Fold each of these.
Amino acid sequence: MKAKDNKKKNKRLKVTVKNIIGIVAFIISILYIVIFYNFYFANNDVYAKEATSSIESIEISNAKNVNLNEIIEENSNQGKKEEFYTEEEDLEYLTTYRNNPSLPKETIQVIQEGREGKQEVTKKRTYENGKILSEEIVNTKITKGAINKIVEIGTGNYKSNYNVKVGDKVYVTSDRLSVMLEPDENSQKMYTLSQNEELKVLEITGEWYYVSFGTKKGYVKKEATTYIDINAKNEENSKNSSTSQKSKSELISNLNFNMALNKPSGLSLEQFKKILTDDNDKNGVFESNAEYFYYIEKQYNINGVFVAAVGIHESGWGTSKISLEKYNLFGYGAYDSSPYNSAYDFANYSESIDLIARVFVKYYINPAGTSIYSGEKASGKYYNGPTLSGINTKYATDKGWANKVYKHMEYLYNKL
């Protein structure tokens, strides 16, 4: 019994020693792995720190650390880049002139009022070194069509400078004349009158008449009425005729580089024809269209000699390709990057003369809010004073443009 117990005890002892040896071997293996792990990653850490230290030590001449984002941004600003943008603009109407021999000579009568439209214009602007290098129109989309203006010019054998007074009768010349609640283009429209209707003038406010017709009252535009009764004889209508004109000394006394251009020159039609008949006008462009520089003065309160001088400068006295092929004396709409293709096309020279006059009046020579033609208000978007220098600020990229135009103005005035 005792021998049996000793045998069991020895067996337990052998098992215990075997287990201990296995545990020790396992522990040694673990220790080996730990030591290897620490050695391997410790070396990698050193390399990583050395690499980081090496990167951080890169410096430029001003001792600042390199910033990759700043370098990329700086480099991108040095080259050319393009920007596309779309904005809504007014779509200017055109004016058609036609002669009417039943009206007194030089009488201006609006048969159809012009209405501006709206258009979405997409432009491409190119920058170089942060500055605008060029700008051009790449697409236009008309969102509201314009209604063109129709004007009749009297070509009768008599002339009248009669000014309408309160109490006078006037007659509607437009085929559909709007009667407004207030003397404002954007006021409430109350009635529509037909051509030849008789009105009584109750009050004169700027470019508007306050009139009565039957039992109704309202405001109408002066330009769409006439004091001339077309049913009356021409002899009766000519009783207030006048052919007076200012002398050269009177007209040239206002000539100077800083003169206000939002006032008419005061030249008569005959005087415009005289100064624009010139040997430099090889194609007779200005001579045959001299009357329209006179008519824009009467309608838009702008110096017609100035407008003619701009046309002479921009078209080389009507010899440029744009003026000859597109009837565009002013290079209107042209961009420096593609002047011919971007310039507007017109059906005749009178359209371009009339349009450029309205553009100057609306955007350049009158401050915002000024009452201008057809009961409208000036935008004043590019207004920097009503002088040549003021216009040159935004109108032309050539800084010497104003001086060149003034030389043409002097030349024309001195021909009186």
Note: The chain has four domains: 1-66, 78-160, 163-226, 245-413.
Amino acid sequence: MESTKERPSRHSRRPRLPNAFTTTLGIAVLLATLFTAWTPNSFFTSNLQEQLRLILTPQAGPNVVTSPQPQLRIGIVAGHTGNDSGAVCVDENGEVDLTEVDVNLEIATLVRESLVSRGYQVDLLNEFDTRLNGYRAVALVSIHNDSCEYINEEATGFKVAASLETRDVNRAQRLTACMTDRYQQVTGLTFHENSITADMTEYHAFSEIDPNTITAIIETGFLNLDREILTNQTDRVAEGVTQGILCFINNESILPTALPTLTP
């Protein structure tokens, strides 16, 4: 049906500029403003093209995903892997039923997976991996376990040590402090400080890696009295190691742990 709305008189009409003309005029004003401050000597140094791109391109809002930050590299050594069995556990019939190397590898693999899922670049390394020569990373942790033999009721818990020859004692102490605190919190195991030996503080990888890489070695438990948590709650053990590494990397609050006194 035809509209009955009155047509405006000629005098009440206002001329309308085409939309294209309005847009062109706005850009022209913008360009004129930018070129006012331009001089031949500053053409490239002021990066005019980049200025235009920033002005004419909509800026990212709060929900826009930005490019990820460079990944931090972390090294995890699965103790004895690729070399020997480490400690060997036998049953009452004298048959081998558990080896340290298998426990170490399972824990190290879970730690790597956990850190990778959090966005870190993680290398899973063998005991005498050729990649250890000059290895550079924000941190390197070697995972081991203690004896299968029953020693006494005190032979339970974990140990953490750093190299005595580290260049950066403060950061080395922070790594061991983080590993000790977080591992104890997650697993409930006690820190068996009095049984740390030169085999730990003089661990071979300490002298092979880049001297600026902060490193530690952890024995996550005794394969005798701690066997249940090491073999049946391996994910919990691995999470304790992971949280210790994250504590160090994220510079979380923790009191430094003094480098241990060696046991003869």
Note: Residues 1-18, 29-46, 51-69 have pLDDT under 50 and may be disordered.
Amino acid sequence: MKRKSFYNLFYLISLILLIAWILATIRQLYDLGGWLLMSFFFALAIAFRGKQFLKGLSYTVMIIGVVSFAMYHPQYFVTIGTFKLSVLIIPLLQIIMFGMGTELSLKDFINVARMPKGIIVGVSFHYLIMPLVGLSIATLFHFPNEIAAGIILVGCCPSGLASNVMSYLARANLALSVSVTTISTLLAPFLTPLLLKWLGGRFVEIDLLTMVWDITKIVILPLVAGLAFHYMIRGRFMWLDKIMPMISMGGIALILAIMVAAGRDNLLKVGALLLVATFLHNVIGFFLGYWSARLLKFHEKDCRTIALEVGMQNAGLASGLALTMGKIATTGLAPAIFGPVMNINGSCLASWWHNHLPKEKTSENEEKPK
């Protein structure tokens, strides 16, 4: 079977599964419906791999499939016997951050000195725009206090690895993207607790020092370990280098499933409204990030980068912090929804920019070719 025919076959399979899901829903066969809907998204994700334009959406579609399954069958993601799966969230986040550290090198930090303006603006806008937009949306929608705090928590977190992937797809400044993500992540133990206490303190009680330590052990220590791994071991075990990205992607999917399952009942009550709120939070971040950079006369590639760095948050870290606060089923809802939403929006935006080349001009924030 030719490659193109193989992927086209999965479009047909996904259509059949979608029709089967609709029929199962009409007949109120919800247990079966959960399996059919997840299978539909998985088949569609495989089909998307066959087209360059849609390839970047493949992982996001699979995430949606996992999340939808968790909504139908939360029991699979709450406990196994007497073991609570929520216990896995922190270790999984640490593994993901370790994976990020293995991809870093001292050269990435040297880049900081070469493009200070772009990094200062990118990090500043990230920690200014998203927290304030989060506060505005949480207030405007009149969510219950702990759910409102989750929206603000997402806004106060650093940018995530997904922004680097999207910057690459968008033909943006990848070096700037990696640098902004790295610096915003290193600043997270200080800025995230302070911003959350300042903006979200009236919604939930924030223990500042406890959160500083939680972020340090979730983010900084694994990053440092990953950086050490990069220089001491990386390249000696090729199979390990290849499997780390897959472990990270699988870890993100499992974290989202656990969060959705834990907050399913609350999600059914406010799900549609919270979906609109997180969509607006993400899109407004992209919009304000891009046009703020344009007003400061950044080159188009840097404007795209700053837009993605501002709008894309480390939703996994927000989920972990919600867990350490003991509010996984309420404060953890916004991060659980924001993750898939930002990946869908970011993939669409990156695909659009990928097909609209920026003007050929050397940016002051990019290294000039030697």
Note: The chain has one domain: 83-354.
Amino acid sequence: MLRSSWKSVAFGVGLASIAAASCASGEGQCRYNSDCLGAYCHEGACKKDCVDSTLDCPRGYTCSLTAQCVPADGDGTPGEKPQADAGPEGPDGNAPDGGPGPGPDSGTTTVNRALLDACTNDSQCSSGLCKPYYTGGPSRCTKSCSSNADCMQNARCIVLGGQSVCVGNDVGRDCNLATDCSFACLTAQRYCTASCTTASDCPNGYGCMPVGTPAQRVCVKAAAPCGPGDTGACIASSACDQTGLVSSCTLACSSAADCPQRAQGLAPWYCDGVCRRPADVYGPLGNGEPAEYACNASSTVISICNDAQHMNFGAFTVPNPPAVSCAAATTTPGAAGDVCVDSCRYSGGCTFGHACTALGGVGGQRIGLCLPSLGNGEVGTSCTTDGDCFFGYCNRNTSKCSRDCTVDGLCPTGSTCVAGTAPNVEGRVFKRCE
């Protein structure tokens, strides 16, 4: 049986209750903005976007102490009107990312801000609620809620300060203690989780299972490698499935609804007391992890990604697999920049730092992909990759940040939710902010 060269550390299972913080400086690795000196943390590295707001930021924005362009107290919104031209297609050629449309207008007010607008205090928001989009992160205008269904796309309903509000999804974020997370930290496995009824409430790669005492149904990670004596990434030592090509974490289930949910149109996981991967999935590597490869029983080179899909986020291409010796006892790394990418359903969204954006395709239908998000780019500002943009969508027709607004129809001030191109996604017309 093939094994990935990755190692995991064994811990017990539990929910955290106290927060912790770390300190660092310079341009190295980071988890929080406070880890960086005069910069902010983006995808694990300290980054600066500006020094002089006049030269480096859009109109109406100022350069913050963390070297980010943020809304000024006065009037103004970012961006110029984009010029439309042809854009590339999605990774498999079925879901084109294109279609002209109006861009954000400048000169709109920054008081009484709309949902999703950047903010610094409650009085700026029409809803009267300005909350961190994620723990320790920048604030956005949000609203109260009673369930996830009340919330904006890629957000969930969380109790903060005794009030239920919509905040960004942070499932899968690294954590040590409860206050590192919006809901709770699985301290044994060291990632943030969220409450769930079924796995449809969780990102792809996560199932829904009772955990703790008293037991609560929470999102549990299955997208992780394991092996004999190396099961720390799994919810329990008995939850390492060694029947596949690569040993993978799994979880107990009573039906397939408890198991990770792929995009509509892809073969589903199934349940026989534990969650089992579909026949086209050979491994457990999660979204954003470097892709690795092996040979299946037919001596065909395949990726061992959790969703059987991979891409280069920067180039927005699907790299060719490397040369693989089918007799090798270990997996083979892909090319530089080749990472695993999960498909997604809007209901479950994506893991922390990614947004479900419908730029993929399968069987002639559009599907969501978990693309890097939480960059500094507001809707309408210039971008080259999805990771440059806060909402995880760089419209390559215009080289401007956008947002997938298919489900909620919401766009930050200065932009409008307009229809993109066919095909539809999850029975809906694909829409984006322009």
Note: The CA atoms of residues 38 and 251 lie 43 Å apart.
